[in-house]
């Protein structure tokens, strides 16, 4: 079994890591941690370095319990939600775990919802946590 967790360093994403760790340990699953950036230029090196630190942190969470984990920094010009769904499709992911950030209804209309898009478009079950 392969579990994909979307990670962006937020509190909701940290909760998703914790939940994924429980599931992966119980199911002897391989974990793929994905951080998505729409683009990266030389002027955005600080953002790339921060994303790499997030992934190192995420990997350390799973290494402590000897859970097989691979991290992926995706810079393909896609939005985070598109990257998550595409990665799941391309890599035969069995379960996606995403953290849900609390937003008002108006905020969701204006900004959209990564989790909402993933739930609708994903090729496998999606587990959300707040």
CATH homologous superfamily - what is it?
A: HUPs
Query: What's the SSE pattern?
Result: EHEHEHEHHE
Structural class, from helix and strand content?
Answer: alpha/beta
What gap, in angstroms, lies between the N and C termini?
A: 24 Å
Mean pLDDT: 89
Query: In what order do the strands lie side by side in the largest sheet?
Result: 3-2-1-4-5
What is the β-strand count? 5
The low-confidence runs, each spanning 5 or more residues with pLDDT under 50, are none
What is the class in the CATH system?
A: Alpha Beta
Please give the CATH architecture: 3-Layer(aba) Sandwich
Globally, the shape reads globular
Please state roughly what percent of the residues sit in beta strands, choosing from under 5%, 5-15%, 15-25%, 25-35%, 35-45% or over 45%: 15-25%
- Assembly state here? single chain
Integer tally of domains: 1
């Amino acid at each position: 079994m392969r579990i994909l967790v979307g990670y962006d360093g937020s509190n909701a994403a940290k909760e998703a890591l914790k939940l994924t760790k429980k599931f992966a340990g119980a199911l002897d699953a391989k974990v793929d941690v994905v951080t998505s950036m729409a683009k990266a230029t030389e002027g955005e090196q600080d953002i790339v370095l921060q994303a790499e630190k997030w992934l190192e942190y995420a990997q350390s969470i799973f290494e402590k319990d000897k859970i097989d984990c691979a991290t992926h920094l995706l810079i393909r010009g896609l939005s985070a939600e598109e990257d998550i769904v595409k990665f799941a499709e391309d890599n035969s992911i069995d379960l996606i775990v995403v953290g849900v950030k609390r937003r008002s209804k108006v905020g969701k209309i204006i900004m959209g919802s990564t989790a909402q898009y993933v739930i609708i478009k994903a090729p496998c079950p999606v587990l959300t946590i707040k």
